[in-house]
Amino acid sequence: MGGKFEMEQAFPDDAVVIAIVGMTGSGKSSFISLLTDDSVEVGHSLNSCTANVKVYTFRDDRGHPGYLIDTPGFDDTTRSDSEVLIDIAFCFSKLYSRGILLNGLIYLHRITDVRMQGSAMKNLTLFKKLCGRHAFSNVMLVTTMWDALPPGRTGDDIGKERLDALANDDKYWGEMERNGSTLARHMGNPKSARVIVNYLIHKKTKVALDIQQQMVDHHLDLNETVAGAYLQQSLVESCKKYENELDEVQRSADLAQEERDMDTVEMLRVEEDRYRTKMKSASGDLRKLRISHQALEKVKPEKYRRLIRAIEHERALRAAEKHEFEQRIADVQARVRRRDREISHLTEETDHLAYNLRGKNQELDVMRSQLRSRSYAGRKEIHSEEEGPGIRSDSIRRDSVASDHVGPSNPASPNRFPMPLTRTMSSI
Length: 428
Prior knowledge:
Helices cover about 60% and strands about 10% of the residues. The chain is of the alpha/beta class. Among the domains are: about 15-220, Rossmann fold (3-Layer(aba) Sandwich); about 220-290. β2 and β3 (about 65-70) form a beta hairpin.
C-alpha cells in the first residue's frame, strides 16, 4: 500500500482482515497477487520477498475493501526468528489494541515437500503458539503447488498421501483440524484463492490471537508470551549448542597448535569465529525478546506506524462511504414516503371523482330511461291516430263496391242472367 496517511480513527466492526502465514517459498505473495490490484513482489527463489509485514487491500464479494496481512516466515533469509516474531507481534498487537480482530489466518504449505522438519517444524510450532487453540477454528490450512506434482493419477495420489500424513499427525495439523481448522487445496488460480478467502469472510465470529491478548490485555513482555517463551527456549538451547561446539573447536585448535599443523589451526580459528558470531547473535536475539507492547510502540520504525495509519485511513474512508450510503438510502426512503403520500392523496381524489361519476352515470341512465319511455308512448299515440282513418276509408270502399253490385243502375252482364235480390244479399 503506497502513500502516507495521517488520519487515525477506529476501524469499522465489519472490516475483513486476514493474515497470510507460511514458510519462504510456500506461495504467500503469489496467493495475495491473485486477490489484490496492489503491486506484490513474487519471489521464485529461496530468498524471502516478505522481509517485513505488509498489508494489501482487496475487494470482497460485496465490493467492500478487505485487508490481507502478508507475514514473513520464521525461515527468513535476511533476519533472525526473533526479529520476525517482533514484527509479527507488533503488527498483531497494534491491530488488537485498536479494536481490530482477525477474520482468520491462512497457513500455506507446499504439497511438494516430502516431509516437514527443521525450520518448517519451527515455523508451524510458532504459528500454533501465536494463535492459541481457541483460534484454530479460524485457521485454514492450505496446500499449494499441486500443479508441480507429477501429472495424472500418480501425482494426485502422492499429494493425497502427503496431505493425509499432515492431517493425521498431531505433530503437524492433526490437533488443529480436530479443534476446527479447515483443510483446503489452492489450485493456483484466482477462483481458488477467492473461495478460500470467502470461507473466512463468511464466518460469523472473528478471533483474537493468544499473543495479542497476552501482550495487550495481560501486559506480558514478548519473551513471556507462549510464542516468545518457545523461541527464547530455542535460542537458549542454540547458545548452549554453540558454546559446546566452540569448546570442541578450541580443543581441536589447541591440539593442532601443539602438532604445529598450522593449516588446521587456521581453519579451526575460522570455525571459532563463526561460532562466536552465532552465540553473539543468539544472545542479542534473547535480549530483543525482552520487550513489551508499550516499548514496541516506541522503538518500531515510523514505517510501521504509517502502515497502521494507512489501514485505519482506508477503514475510515469505508466508514464515511457507509455513512454516505446510509444517508442516501434514508433520502430515497423519505422521497418514497412523500410519493406514497401523494399517490394516496391522488387515489382518494380519484375515488371521489369515480364515485361522483358513477352518480352522474346513474342520473343519465334514469334520464335515458325516461326519454325512451316518452319516445315509446309518443310513437304509439301517433301510430294509433294514423291507424283509425285507414279503417274508415276501407269500409267506405267496401260499401262502395257492394253498392256497385246491387244498385239498380248496374246493367246485367250480357253473358249472365240477372240474380234475384235475396240470393245476392245472402251471398254477401
